[in-house]
Amino acid sequence: MSTNNKNLSRRAFLRNSSLAGGGMLIGFNLFQACKPKVISEPAIDLASLDYKDFNAFIKIADNGAVTIFSPNPEVGQGVKTSMPMIVAEELDVAWKNVHVEQGILDTENYTRQVAGGSQSIRFGWDALRQTGAAAKQMLVSAAAARWGVDPSECTVSEGVITNAAGETLGYGDVVNDAAQLEVPEDIKLKSPKDYKIIGKDAANVDIDEIITGKPLYGLDYKEEGMVYAAVVRPPAFGHKLVSYDATEAKAMPGVMDVFTIGEKLRALKEEVPRITNITSDSDKIVVIAGSTWEALKAKEAIKVEWEEASKAESTADHDKILMDLLDGNKFETQRADGNVKKAFAEADQILERTYESPFLPHSCMEPMNFFAAVTDEKVRLIGPIQTPEGTAGFVAQMLGRDPKDIHLEMTRIGGGFGRRLYGDFAIEAAEIADKVRKPVKLVFSKEDDMEDGIYRMAIKYRIKAGVKDGKVIAYHLKEAAVNSNMYGLIPNFFPAGAIENYQVDTASYNSNITTGAWRAPYTNFLAYAEQSFFDELAEMMEVDKIQLRLDLLDKVKPEEDERIQYSPERMKEVIRVAVEKSGWGKKPDNVYQGFVNYYCHNTHVAEVADVEIENGEAVVKKITCVVDCGIVVNPLGAMNQIEGGVLDGVGHSMYGELSFENGRPTATNYDKYRLLRMREAPEVVTYFIENEHSPTGLGEPTLPPAGGAIANAFKAATGNRLYKQPFANTPELLKAPVKEIIG
Amino acid sequence: MPTYQIKVNGASKTVDVSEDTPVLWVLRDHLDLVGTKYGCGIGQCGACTIHVDGTAMRSCSMTMTQIDGKSITTIEGLSENGDHPVQQAWKEVDVPQCGYCQAGQIMTASAFLAQNPNPSEEEVKNAMHGNICRCASYTRIKKAVMIAAENME
Predict the structure, then answer these.
(1) Which residues pair with B49 in a beta bridge?
(2) Over 60: is that where the pLDDT of A328 sits?
(3) What stretches of A488-617 show up as alpha helix (H) in DSSP?
(4) A477 and A426: one domain?
(5) What is chain A's percent helix, strand, coil content, to nearest 5?
(6) Model's pTM, two decimal places?
(7) Containing H/E element for A324?
(8) Is position A517 within any domain?
């Protein structure tokens, strides 16, 4: 396979230079499709080079050693392993000889140095391959020139170039010559059938450090002279600081200072309206101490008076407000095909159901934290962040600094799930560091994390379908959500395009509770609602549940509607394989199955849940998951993402719930907030559809279908439909029918 | 502040902290052993698991008074070169996603296998039930513990 990519200017994203100490460096802009950017600076020993245009680098030393700088935050999704694998494949070096380093962020103008939306591999795929291939072509040209032969006579294997006469040169032997060459215009890429690294299992590049407990995470970062900060936050949403007395706290061991922050953040929010909802407007009280424990303990000794500045809301309020929205007519229409109203009037059969979900915290294992050091010369920020660029920009703006003064380093991240897209903790750390003028590490307690989160919002869906002459003629989905609604192409996911009269309407209620993205935003609940509904629709129509989905897919014509990005053919294939691999319809009588097919994050997925009755209760035993994510870069890592996504979906639909009472979450730690644990984790069996499509997202798309698959299997086992998450809250609906217990 | 003598990973250490300081924070902030993780602080998640005289304990919920004079092993001291059979099995299976909870998982598993070298799958699930993995790498944790058990024979 060769590409010309006429729409890309090679120079726009590739540059070559020789290294002072010997060797070559190729810089590339991973996201070259975005507008040209100017500043970036690698972390290691490359600072002296005039290399300002790129956000990722390959360094080849004259001993042949290869270092690849991975630009995107590593949040557990495995990109620190899989992105460099793609470069190494086209570069044609042995994976075991590649050393991977986390790249850093500089202050300005990165393009997409983000972990979110399951997009790192999808967007990086072309640039990563072309960069590896370009470097290889230059190395081969250098060797060919030395031998006086044509480059086409040379072959490469694992960093060794061989000519027709059988002579060999290693990359290290010719790298200094290659560094003098222009980057080639015509880059030839490998055919997938020749891949030696892509498609083979590679272990996590940080595995040795993880299993031996080396410092990797933000909370592990430490430097000379660093102090610790803990923050007293409003006890409830809507509350504001009136006054406080820190006399006792200041006398405690290790406590150095107590002061308030909030003023600078409020000023920033005035300038940047889109961050107004990431944290409260109240002042917060900061304790500075010599250790984490001393800081956390001193918080408890501060006497504080708060006032209810805006209504402290409760879950009962939200339930009523969202139901009223669904019953009302204050909707914004996201997509409308045909005329649903007219079609419902003509229908022979109507089905209408409402589905409900609670708020969810992200529950990252590593509590929020960030290191900040502010001097007149610069601002240093170090820690776990999914959006380094945006956060550095906010800090610069808040402190009135030149963006070039901000130096941000990303640590490995102890779980994100969307929470670390919001840089509130880093901004807070910077405001603290600006006041204290010492290197400082801000640490959230687990309770701070849960009580002052940016939660998955509570949502309710109402879905109505009309059937005439055995065909689905109308489909109307209404969404009522706290703070914000579905966005992007979500209103155009299946069954959009399959039903003539189709409408998606959304409405929201503005709460003072902070909400935001949570792994697979909106679809994490929508998939369960819609897929439960399809099952019930098939029951009403007395047709086969899978056949109903296949018949709908037959009607979809993506070529006629650019908003429809799922492929009916790829969807049918995951359905076919899931039916086959799960033993659908062929299971013994004690196994009850539930089926879901879904598309999000550009990936097609089908899941089948197997439920069995144990001691009179329905228990999820196994999930069969079939995934079409195009070429699988690292199957070992990909399966880990899939297993994790499926179990995350199972766990949160079974147990996840954060309720509010007078502005306070009713659970503040894992004693009351239930996460999936080992004994409740079903077996997950994964199958990939093998094809040569470019890779698509994998961190999120297996999560949404899981809730629907188990809900449909529970219905098969118990006869009960589940309309409200979490399912474990209604144990009576998870019990086997009486005949089952007697029989 | 009181002074405590503890043995950590075979070395004697003297620390000078207030008596209610959890062992977790002594390890992390005073002894620079950051492999032991802070997850919940109330003994619910297991990220802070260490061995105290060979038994798996939650370091976030133990004070220095409770371990004075005892011998502690942390993830950093589980083996000389990261080659404890449990660590090796973790590597073989490629267990971690974000990896944050894994030191605690490994410490729980290694103490469990020392007591029960031939566990059934059910016993492994029960032993590991107290350790939360938010990324839900449970399938691989279970597999790795079974492999480690086999390799320890």
Answers:
(1) B58
(2) yes
(3) 523-541, 545-554, 568-582
(4) no
(5) 35, 25, 40
(6) 0.93
(7) helix A315-327
(8) yes
**Which tens digit of pLDDT belongs to each residue from A343-369?**
999 999 999 999 999 999 999 999 999
Looking at the structure, tell me whether residues A224 and A245 fall in a common domain. Answer: yes
Same domain, A203 and A228: no
pLDDT at A294 over 90: yes
Model confidence at A55: pLDDT above 50: no
CATH superfamily ID and name for B85-152: [2Fe-2S]-binding domain (1.10.150.120)
Q: Nearest CA of chain A to the CA of B91: how many Å?
A: 7
A314's tokens: 């409760």
Assigned token pair, A65: 């050693």
Distance from CA of A656 to the nearest CA of B (A): 12
Strand partners, A40: none
Spans of all domains in chain B? 3-77, 85-152
> B141 at the A interface (CB within 8 A)?
yes
Q: Say whether both A664 and A715 belong to one domain.
A: yes
Q: Do A415 and B98 touch (CB under 8 A)?
A: yes
Q: Is B147 on the interface with A (CB under 8 A)?
A: no
| Residue A245 shares a structural domain with residue A393 | yes
The distance between the two most distant Cα atoms of chain A, rounded to a whole number of Å, is: 86
Least confident of A62-66, A222-226, A534-538, A556-560: A62-66
Say if A343 falls within a structural domain. Answer: no
pLDDT at A628 over 70: yes
pLDDT of residue B60: 98
The answer as to whether A353 is a domain residue is no
Q: Which SS3 state, helix, strand or coil, does residue A665 take?
A: strand
- The pLDDT value given to residue A184: 85
Please determine, for residue A57, whether its predicted confidence score (pLDDT) is greater than 80: no
**Domain of A203, in residue numbers:** 10-211
From the list A215, A363, A636, the residue facing B134 with the nearest CB is A363
What is the CATH code for B3-77?
Answer: 3.10.20.30
Return d(Cα A341, Cα A353) in angstroms, integer.
17
Domain containing A88 — which CATH number? 3.30.365.10
pLDDT of residue A14: 58
